[in-house]
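Lab meeting, action items carried over

1. Structure of the two-component assembly. Owner: GW. Status: complete.
Input record:
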Amino acid sequence: MSWEDKVRRVVPYVPGEQPKKRNVIKLNTNEFPYPPSPVLKEALKNTDQESYRLYPDPYGEPLRSAIGECYKVSPERVFVGVGSDDVLSMAFLTFFNSEKPVLFADITYSFYDVWADVYRIPYERIPLNEDYHMVKEDYLRENGGIVIANPNAPTGISEASDPDFFESIVKGNPDSVVIIDEAYVDFSDSSMLCLTEKYDNVLIVQTFSKSRAFAGMRIGFAIGNEKLIKYMNDVKFSVNSYTMSRAAIEYGIAVLKDKDYFEETVKKLINSRERIKKELKELDFEFFDSKANFIFATHKKLKAEYIFKELKKQDIYVRFFNKARIDNYLRITIGRDEDMDRLIIALKDIISKG
Amino acid sequence: MSWEDKVRRVVPYVPGEQPKKRNVIKLNTNEFPYPPSPVLKEALKNTDQESYRLYPDPYGEPLRSAIGECYKVSPERVFVGVGSDDVLSMAFLTFFNSEKPVLFADITYSFYDVWADVYRIPYERIPLNEDYHMVKEDYLRENGGIVIANPNAPTGISEASDPDFFESIVKGNPDSVVIIDEAYVDFSDSSMLCLTEKYDNVLIVQTFSKSRAFAGMRIGFAIGNEKLIKYMNDVKFSVNSYTMSRAAIEYGIAVLKDKDYFEETVKKLINSRERIKKELKELDFEFFDSKANFIFATHKKLKAEYIFKELKKQDIYVRFFNKARIDNYLRITIGRDEDMDRLIIALKDIISKG
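Predicted assembly:
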């Protein structure tokens, strides 16, 4: 017997590599390519550093109210956390507390099964159909909860083209909480926020890490019914009362308020994405119609792993998942135009030699 | 049946009140009364705000290395988290994964049973003796783990006056992890960091929220054997890979490096504490010999709850716990000298009327 027998053993999530060296073109963790809003500079200058000796507000106020204002919901319907991973992990711990399996797609954000494992939540992975779409009927049966990433990762596919898709799942599952993970939703036009007005069992989760260029500050949030949010806060207060630093609260508000910059840079990114789709097609890549800030692509001739390694040699990092059904795909984050130009040149070179 | 049947119900920890109004003398949450090191100003000015679009390092580097350097241990022996509550909660989740009860004192940091409840960890509260001290023999029997706050909260008592106390518990429990929560240790002279060199089953947890005046930035850390730290990081990466914001990492390093300011302000606080002990004694208070930045005191005549309410009327907030064995005590955080002077005047007034 040893203390090691009492340790919770897990297979940890492996985040995308954060290269130490400079001049890497980093298209592997879906970060936003443009800097955070320039208003941040002013916010930094105005920091009330003396107040940092005091604990922050446990609800993340006044950031919570600012998010509520932005999305036109009361603050009591907003939960804030240390990135959407913190928010989702708290939602799993709070809402998926039964013996029945939680349902999610076989190909989706790879943290869902990790959280289920660490919190001992039973789960079932539902295969996407052959077009990598979800089949809504699969989610209309007994379960312990449902989690859906939309747009999905790493495919970039949005199910919102079927206008009834989400509502039928939420409505059909009054006995479960349905979490819709909208980390990439600002690059699409498919938020299901409206469902939170009508149903008390749906939770929308979003993040500042992608479209708001603020991965470094760790801010995520959820919007739902007041009752849902209260349950989440009860659990959060039982884990760590003060998660949102004063810096995250102050700077988060500043960045959130610069709507013009947000809209302008998101539009720019979407334009780049659509341009790159055309260029990849010309290079014999096939891919899903991504509504996110990445493209999940496979090449007609060359193996994904080979391209991944060749790109890395040229200091261009993309993401490769060595997993069933997706091990011949690359997930390529949309970067600045000049980075994407360098990517295309590198790909042409690799393909011509391959 | 409703989705609410699948919700994890908890009795959440209630943090000390964070008053919205100004001019309150806040002696209720053990915050440090002096501002963070003035070097913070320079760090804020030098912030590389453009980098905030990128995820931070998942290990909290380079803050982790800076802590290692400060405490003369390798970075691989350091774990950083969002305040010591995050660190402790991760340690509970990681190390207390058995059917045997985790042991801690009946009067100690009130989060321990909350974490045990939320993570479904069995536990047993061991009564302190009549002098409110721990009895080491109580911790030398089969258990699922041990957690000890030293100096203890809310009593302020340190067990380090018995030089063998901690080593005998650590040595006597090779099959369990022993966590020593040293949130207040800088106000004493009793860190057990040295035990981590000799034993692989002891974890020391400390925080920037008290002696480093940085509660608002949320930084805590643990030091232990490399193997312990690896297990903790595995679990942490399975909950939230990126917990430490770029701001917390940058500003944390700045504050940590200003050793002169740290030593000077801690010394000042200890002087205030010893002065206040004398003044409270003259006012007929009785208290333990606190080695922390607070005094846990009871009055010979007046009820603690009465004094608590009367002080609040005068905008002086202290902490009152409505719990067995301690419901006639007040926990008074040591503030700036001028705040303590006002407290003493207010107490004199209350006592003269009471």
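2. GW to write a short summary for the group page. Key points so far: The first strand of chain B starts at residue 25 and ends at 26. The radius of gyration of chain B is 21 Å.
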